[in-house]
Fold each of these.
Amino acid sequence: MDRRHKKTGKELNPETLALGYGYDPFLSEGAVKPPVFLTSTFQFRTAEEGQRYFELAYKLRPPRTSEAPGLIYSRLNNPNLEIFERRVAAWDGTDEGAVFASGMAAITTLVWALLKPGDVILSTQPIYGGTHYFFEHILPAFQITNRFVPATGDVSHALREAVREFGPERIRLVFIETPANPSNVLVDLSRAAEVVREVRVAGRNACHLAVDNTFLGPVFQKPAAFGADFVIYSATKFLGGHSDLIAGVVTGSSHAMEAVKLYRTILGTMANPFTGWLLLRSLETVSVRMRRQAKSAQKLALLLAEHPKVKRVYYPGLLAPGTAEHAIYEKQCTGPGSLIAFEVEGGVEGAQRVLNHFEIARLAVSLGGTESLVEHPMTMTHSDVPPDELARIGVSPGLIRMSVGLEHLTDLKRDLLSALEAL
Ligand SMILES: Cc1ncc(COP(=O)(O)O)c(C=O)c1O
């Protein structure tokens, strides 16, 4: 299967591509589903073939017409990873993908591939805790500086201010997570992309825009269409979708992905073949799962918004038309996703009481799986964020984050209402 319908030349949709693109059954005994290629290494037919494959893999020469790279060793390439990478790139509207052992492996490998001592990252805050730790506590030892800008809609002014402070030559990466975790604040990607283009021109360098698309991608948000050079995922979440694997993904243009793939090979941060196979299985249903989860989440968010014991609900599906944030939502998102944050009365004690009374939603961190999960950001996922920063990013003592799963909506409503009765 090609990305286009052969007869009509029309582009196929990612839902269709997820079922057949990038895999030739007749290379695998006619198996309709790709087998698991549990092998560390691949046999060459001749010594000359092995030489050719290495020349192409290490870019020692350009490929000749119709010469395709071959399989060598599973740290460089493996069919389970390659098929998944083609399909996830099709979802993102990018050329290529690379799958990693975790979301953090994806983020760290991307940064090592792009930055060198003296360089600066501009990133939005709040950001996932592991990314925060890497940027703030590990990169400084390598003379790489991170500067946070608040994730508030149009970040272009704050980005330009930071560019003036450091000088455009030093800014190599703008890193955005939208919606932000856990407050669900949206960042305007096309306005950020404008600044990245200005930096490229003024600094005569290769500044890139990377977007962590874990919360809404690949179904409800396509950052590449708004100027992102790299789209990043914790594939542990919706892409994997069943809370049974840890993985990460980066997609982008073939040119941009060259360095990322090289660094993945050298650092050995790729996923294993079985994880690649699980991801292939999961990608077939990602659209169905995410749409159904979002439908339930929208209903639960409305229920929460009307509840007398709930002080505030953060959910993209509740944004008021006419506001700047709603305009960003309309421009860059095609659905609200299934993560809701809500603040209950009674601070930490109130939140913990509610959390202890869920029967169906599990009390666990992570998100995007088939089962609903609830957690307390202040004492769990965001517990290492300093108190003054917590207040700034909207993590109040009574805040609860819920990842809505595929359970029957009636049961989820009952579970939520009865947990709130504990207050
Ligand atoms: C938005 C976001 N990015 C990255 C990560 C890191 O992914 P992983 O846990 O797969 O390493 C997470 C994990 O929770 C996340 O929520």
Note: The pocket of pyridoxal-5'-phosphate is lined by residues 102-104, 128, 130, 177, 181, 212, 214, 234, 236, 246, 248 (CB under 6 Å).
Amino acid sequence: MKFGQRKLSRRRLLGGAAAASAALPALHELVPHKGLHHALDAAAAEPHTPGMSMNGAAAHAAHLGTVGTVNPRTNGFDPQEMLRDFDEGRMVGAVREWELVAEEKEIEVAPGVKYAAWAYNDRVPGPTLRAREGERLRVRFTNGSKHPHTIHFHGIHPSAQDGIAGLGAGNIEPGRSTAYEFHATPFGLHLYHCHTLPLAEHIAKGLYGAFIIDPKDDRPAADELLMVMNGFDTNFDRSNEVYAVNTVAFDYMHRPVRVKRGELVRIYLVNALEFDLLNSFHIHANFFDYYPTGTRLEPRDFTDTVVQGQGERGILELRFPYAGKYMFHAHVSEFAELGWMGFFQVDE
Ligand SMILES: [Cu+2]
């Protein structure tokens, strides 16, 4: 069977032991000579399943994770670095300014699984824009792709700056540029994304990013992490086959997020998922304070699991009292088994 003839279906991958066994050869066909999808290991595959490599057996022994990893150089961005990569732009006079360019870009979302993405500034998610409440902001946008796009910011601003068709600059055609200007308000954790129709496709292709507005008085000092929950519809059936935080499935399983015992950790958590109505974040062996949208300085919840709808986001704060490895994952088990899980490595 030729590459691509059979579709990679998450239902087949996750349909239980029998389905997983049946799906195994299909996946090999789809990603020849590349790593096995972990879901097969997790669901049912025996260590001696035909075609399973020693690496596969090792992954099985470790229970979860892909065989092999995505080399960050392939994508030109690294989920490890994205965690702490906050883009404050530059000051032009009294205005904080960024330049964003939308372009087509092939990315690797799991070992051997390529995705024809659309990206702001060559990365998915796009740069994490960060400003201070009340500042004047300017985002220069150039559409370097073959399709019309916009940038629509969440926040409070005049309608002409809203980045949708028919208002202000409207859709930005290929090769054209515009600038969005507005004030940074309210403080909190927001997002930006393309708002050209068909909307779900334009977002799901990768045109989204986090937008942090810090309150006038800083939040307490912390080790700050950005986590954008996303997914990829690799066969264009309007459901996702790969799920992740910061794009690369299972990356934080292979390379845990390193934090320090006792230190305050603040997670900016954004749900950029399309096609699935809900996503969630669950941490093992710990609890966190949760600030929905980050727009209040008092937490709403003290919990270990939070659910977010499409476009929802919030800030988590926690400390790890014990050193060791702590799993975090979508408590939507299906998403977890298709890539959305990782570890914190807590060091002394
Ligand atoms: Cu678009």
Note: Confidence is low (pLDDT under 50) at residues 1-6, 15-62.
